[in-house]
Amino acid sequence: MIINSTTPEIRWAQVCYSASSxxxxxxxxxxxxxxLYIKTCKLLGGRRYSMIVFGFAMLLIQGWVFFxxxxxxxxxxxVSALLSYAAFGGVAYWLERSSGSAKQNHLPRE
Length: 110
What we know:
single chain; mainly alpha; flat
């Protein structure tokens, strides 16, 4: 069976499984979550902008990892993934706690 790359099914598969479409899907989900967080929580001072800047920083690091050179080994990829996950979690925790108590910051808007 010959696979013709001009058929709609093959074109759709090329679009859905390309690296750039996966990256932009992750970016849209990330910023949708940040948008919902900003809209549902009372954010004090510059924390609103710090969350957006943190989102862009995560997006840039993800792009470098996703499109950059491959890691030296599978163990290096696993270690870098775990370390970046812990670092992102630590920064998110620090941003959450930096402007006051959690009870004060998570009150619904009126």
